[in-house]
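Hey, I was hoping to borrow your eyes for a little while. A protein chain has come my way and I'm curious about its shape. Take your time with it, there's no hurry, and the full record follows here:
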Amino acid sequence: MHLDEREYGVNAPTDFHWNQLLSLDACVQCGKCEQACPAFAAGQPLNPKKLIQDLVCGFWTQAT
């Protein structure tokens, strides 16, 4: 990643590597990320588990 780029991250499922997609599928159940997230614990609008679940749902929507 170059810091002078105007866009960061991914824009489409095809921007992920296969192992990243596999990790998303595996990361939706346990909730340990919520327990360890300082923003979630402080009541801020960040829920790591919901973010991953929304990504997975978005991929299914784009695929169909």
Observations:
- The mean pLDDT is 75.
- The first helix runs from residue 18 to 26.
